[in-house]
Automatic annotation (TrEMBL):
Belongs to the MgtC/SapB family. This is Protein MgtC. Residues 21-139 form the MgtC/SapB/SrpB/YhiD N-terminal domain. GO terms for cellular component: plasma membrane. The chain crosses the membrane at residues 12-31, 43-62, 68-87, 94-111, 117-135. Gene3D superfamilies: 3.30.70.260. It is found in: Cell inner membrane; Cell membrane.
Length: 238
């Protein structure tokens, strides 16, 4: 009959208010996510907030404020694992970071509600919503802004296709010409190209180049015996 003895209408009403606030605020955060058709939407954010509120409220009833603090710390780490499951990597792109951060925010809202800090829970929910709505136009505007060439970084590589029998001489000549032009080589890779040729790829230390200078180096390389083709390209750094 311990369950009946623990039944306290005042405590139950307090829990009902805390969990209801967590449900409403978590649902509000999730509604914005659901509207944008994100992975973690209305139900997920509401559940995270409610669960965090229940755990913290239960710990506070059983162990006081100290117990609530300990459980809140576990809620933070537990939701961290939940958020990690929402993060996915597709090639060079990582998606789901904002979803994971929103779940973390919902847990914070729920923890505040469970600790009877309803004002703090409302403030936290408003700022989570503001982050996902008010900052979105700013982010989109920045992402559409073209990056200035002088402020961007790229990896530059020189490619030379040459006769396989003269590969060593061509590589030596390539490094020599690049160093003369003040573009030292960071790494050199070689691989077969067709039946009789080879391709030499030299990666430069430079993160910015003068195109005319590299074009001049390519022209000199193409006049080297055994060289079939020489060109350079740039790729954005990750």
């Amino acid at each position: 009959m311990q369950a009946l003895q623990n039944l306290n209408l005042d405590s139950l009403l307090d829990t009902l208010v805390s969990v209801s606030a967590a449900f409403a605020l978590g649902g509000l955060i999730g509604l914005e996510r659901q509207w944008r058709q994100r992975t973690a939407g209305l139900r997920t954010n509401a559940l995270v907030a409610v669960a965090a509120a229940v755990f913290v409220d239960m710990a506070q009833r059983l162990g006081g404020n100290e117990g609530a603090v300990h459980v809140a710390a576990y809620v933070v780490s537990g939701v961290g694992f939940l958020g990690a499951g929402a993060i996915m990597k597709e090639g060079a792109n990582v998606i789901g970071l904002n979803t994971a951060a929103t779940l973390w925010g919902s847990a914070a809202v729920g923890a505040c509600a469970g600790a009877d800090l309803l004002g703090e829970a409302i403030v936290a929910a408003l700022f989570v919503l503001a982050s996902n709505t008010l900052l979105r136009p700013v982010v989109n505007r920045i992402n559409r802004r073209p990056v200035e060439e002088e402020s961007s970084e790229a990896t530059y590589a020189v490619h030379v296709v040459c006769d396989r029998e003269q590969q060593a001489d061509v590589q030596e000549r390539l490094i020599e010409l690049l160093e003369e032009a003040s573009y030292p080589v960071r790494a050199v890779d070689q691989q077969p190209f067709g039946q009789n040729d080879a391709e030499i790829e030299a990666t430069l230390y430079a993160t910015a180049v003068v195109p005319e200078q590299l074009d001049a180096v390519m022209a000199r390389l193409e006049s080297t015996p055994g060289v079939v083709q020489a060109f350079w390209n740039a790729s954005a750094q990750e």
